[in-house]
Amino acid sequence: MAGFRTAGSFVAMALSVGLLTACSGDRGSNKNESLENFTAEEIYKRGEYELENNTKPKEAVHYFGEVERLYPYSDWAKRALIMQAYSYHKAREYEDARGAAQRFIDTYPGDEDAAYAKYLLALSYYDQIDDVGRDQGLTFQALKSLREVIEEYPDTEYARSAILKFDLAFDHLAAKEMEIGRYYLKRGHYTAAINRFRVIVEEYQTTTQTPEALMRLVEAYLALGMTNEAQTAGAILGHNFQSSPFYQDAYKQLQGQGLAPEAKGDSWLTKVYRQVIQGKWL
User: Fold this and answer.
1) How many other C-beta atoms are found inside a 10 Å radius of the C-beta of residue 14?
2) Which family is this protein grouped under (predicted)?
3) Phi, psi of 230 (to 5 degrees)
4) Among 30, 100, 186, 273, which one is least packed by beta carbons within 10 Å?
5) Arithmetic mean of pLDDT over the chain
6) Is the per-residue pLDDT at 60 higher than 50?
7) For the ranges 90-104, 121-135, 193-207, which has the lowest average pLDDT?
8) Are the beta carbons of 226 and 219 closer than 8 angstroms?
């Protein structure tokens, strides 16, 4: 958990043999054991030990939870709560991770680790993003939560990481549109395909999907005999991505019909082209 203050400073501390023996008669945790005779620090360290040495990170949650139960409102309880969120996340129990992280934010909104809790909450959505063919609800949730980290904690390392992940999640949404557009295009549903590619060009223009979307627009418009639109899409592609193999493909398609990439007509693509030339688009 790079950059996390409370975890990093205590994992390095050695646990006493007596504590290890008292908390566990053999390897693994015993959730029926009594921890009431141990200090908050000892129980917390046991949780860290389990987190670092047990193949099941969720086992650590028991100890961090006991710190909260036995020593509520203490500094150790505060640290244990955020460590519960981290342990759940490491165990891929994302909903529980979000719950613990949100509880930390609600209970300690002004704490210096609130930024990490917020980031961990966003990460729990981000790490659940599936293949582009799956439902994108979690992607939208990830984007929303990552944006909150960026806006609320702009000067933290978590904001810097959130920016990178935001861009990847945004690209993921564009890839979904691209996948659907290809599906329609392959089946000859050109208007439906164009609508998908248009979304990418207008709403996801900063993503890596844009060059292909423009090339597919050339292909779809040519199939419909709409040469002005096809040429304009090719012109935008050439202006911004001339070194892209997608431009080479689009150029060959246009050339094959005796056409060249240039802005023609007065379509939505012509407006985009004007914005590009004026430096107001990408």
Assistant:
1) 7
2) Belongs to the BamD family.
3) -65, -45
4) 186
5) 86
6) yes
7) 121-135
8) no
Q: At what angle are helices 227-241 and 210-223 packed, to 10 degrees?
A: 160
The second-level CATH assignment, the architecture, of 1-128 is Alpha Horseshoe (1.25)
Tokens representing residue 259 in the block:
């056409």
Residues 6+ apart with CB under 8 A from 123: 89, 165
Q: Measure the CA–CA gap between 130 and 143, rounded to whole angstroms.
A: 14
- Mean pLDDT to the nearest integer, 72-99: 95
161, two tokens = 């990481």
Residue boundaries of the structural domains of the chain: 1-128, 172-282
CA 30 distance to own-chain centroid: 35
pLDDT at 133: 55
Per-residue pLDDT of 88-106, as tens digits, reads 999 999 999 999 999 999 9
Asked, colleague to colleague, whether 1-128 and 172-282 share their fold, the answer is yes
Q: Residue 225: which H helix or E strand, with range?
A: none
User: Measuring CA to CA, how many Å separate 195 from each of 63, 178, 226?
Assistant: 53, 10, 15
Sign of CA dihedral 90, 154, 139, 196: negative
* Rounded Cα–Cα distance for residues 30 and 256 (Å): 73
Q: What is each CA distance from 39 to 52, 60, 74, 260, in whole angstroms? A: 20, 16, 11, 77
Largest CA distance in the chain: 86
pTM of the model: 0.74
Spatial CA neighbour of 219 closest among 250, 240, 242, 198: 250
For the record, the structure tokens of 83 come out as 């460590």
Alpha-carbon distance of 184 to 104, in angstroms, equals 46
